[in-house]
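subagent[fold] <- orchestrator: predict structure for attached chain, return tokens only, no commentary.
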Amino acid sequence: MSIKPINVGLLGIGTVGGGTFTVLQRNAEEITRRAGRPIRITMVADRNLDLARKITEGACRVTDDAFAVVSDPDVDIVVELIGGYGVAKELVMKAIANGKHVVTANKALLAVHGNEIFEAAQEQGVMVAFEAAIAGGIPIVKAVREGLTANRIEWVAGIINGTTNFILSEMRDKGLAFDVVLKEAQRLGYAEADPTFDIEGVDAAHKITLLSSLAFGIPVQFDKAYIEGISKLDAIDIQYAEQLGYRIKLLGISKRTEEGVELRVHPTLIPAKRLIANVEGAMNAVLVQGDAVGPTLYYGKGAGAEPTASAVIADLVDVTRMHTADPENRVPHLAFQPNAMSDLAILPMDEVQTSYYLRLRVQDKPGVLADITRILAGEQISIGAVIQKEPGEGEPQADLIMLTHQTREKRINAALAKIEALDVVAGKVTKLRMEELGK
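subagent[fold] -> orchestrator:
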């Protein structure tokens, strides 16, 4: 007796779509053995019909009308790889309304409209799987949602954007300025022609928003995330950080505190001895701290045709296995039962507590340090380390670098306003946040 295959409709056969088609065909036998029945792509929608025909080689139907796929009665699962918030949302909602399961790599869509999409899926009794939306081939969604179920998760910190990590690695290795390295990253294909989403931290913020929901059982709240990218980062700060035993990485961070959940993306100093500080190039890594398990680290390729396809197909297998299960017995979309979500608030950045790296340009004369430490003490900020750089020959100003102990963001901002008003301080103070990421 042959078991009826699961039919998949693929929306978009670009990089990830092409990878998904290839890997699914190459490993068909293995995947069938795992899933319990064959999974086959029966329909592909792409605006580029020639490309779609070339990749599929007549193995399935090809159309340039994505709506035909989500409405086709023979399609069981829709894989959405179009991206963006526009037509992708319409297609996903239509697929759900038509009783089809959805597998997507679209972090932007879920970070912004996830609550509405998951609710619709819940009502229709279908699944929306999104392993490929966070950190490419790394199975971080499954790890947090299922593997760490026993834990009260304390925090998550991730290098979850390969473009920015590549740029920071190059800036550190070669001592080059941001703009120079960005051009190189674009030439090598690591950065898009318009790199804004990556370099300004938006892409990482989409992903940490989803991870915060999986970790803490809160609704997705992208609009409350604090987002700061790397475009204003100075190569000199990377060097100074290095001298102090730190690496600078763009981190997505979400922490549970008594006052609420921190949800933030920004360049961060991490001790160089931490494993995650040594993640170089376009690789991704996510560090999860659970109360029972302690810290666990997930490392791998965060983008690319086959790594991302690996996650898409894992979701297809999951959905295939659970396809006939009673919807009440499936793993909830955001790890916690929908009626048991928490309304823990997202903390405004002003209320976040962390340590800071400060770089000041100061006049080289006695009493300057005393003035600055007095202001910091007035805001109850204590200093962990100070480096005073000798001014160059005939230069009236020198760099002063300070590392603070933990304090509240609003306190450091108040102190910096006063410090910048001092006659002996030139221009603005450079402020970067620091995380120990260890017990």
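orchestrator: received. Logging for downstream: The chain has 15 helices and 17 strands. The first helix runs from residue 15 to 26.
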